[in-house]
Amino acid sequence: MLDEQGCLRLNPGGDVVVWPHDHSADVDARGRVRIRDGKGRVVAKVGDNVAVGGGEVGDRGIGFVDPGSVPSKQELLERCPGRYYPSGDEVTSVKEYTTGN
Q1: Residue 82's closest CA among 30, 21, 32, 12?
Q2: Which of 8, 19, 30, 34 is paired with 58 by a 20 to 30 Å CA distance?
Q3: Residue 57 near residue 64 (C-beta atoms within 8 A)
Q4: Positions of E strands within 2-58
């Protein structure tokens, strides 16, 4: 989800996702925030269920953040405080499962 500070979080009040350094964020014609990989492919949109590698590092683990990450280390500290979840290089959109009910 996109919070009021413009930070992408896993859920309300949750970890801020730190995407790989070659990923970027943009907004589509419908106003949805999208994440693109290093080849320009859309790999996730706000509201999607995604599968990513990585793991939560807490608020003291900010040292792992690559200076070229999206968002940047400085932006995380200033605008997106909290716990951080560095995403691995593989980001996959996951389709919702439905039961046969």
Answers
A1: 12
A2: 34
A3: yes
A4: 16-18, 24-27, 33-36, 42-45, 49-54
Which residue ranges make up each domain of the chain? 16-93
**How does pLDDT run across 60-101, given as a tens digit for each residue?**
556 666 666 666 777 778 888 888 877 777 777 665 443 444
37-76 CB burial, b ≥16 within 10 A, e <16:
beeeeebbeeebeeebebeebeeeeeeebeeebbbbbebb
User: Which residues are paired to 70 by β-bridges?
Assistant: 19
Identify which of 51, 42, 41, 36 has the alpha carbon closest to the alpha carbon of residue 91. Answer: 51
User: SS3 of 95, please?
Assistant: coil
Residues pairing with 33 in the sheet = 27
Tokens 């996702």 found at: 17
Q: Which pLDDT tens digit goes with each residue over 24-68? A: 888 889 988 888 888 998 888 888 777 777 666 665 556 666 666
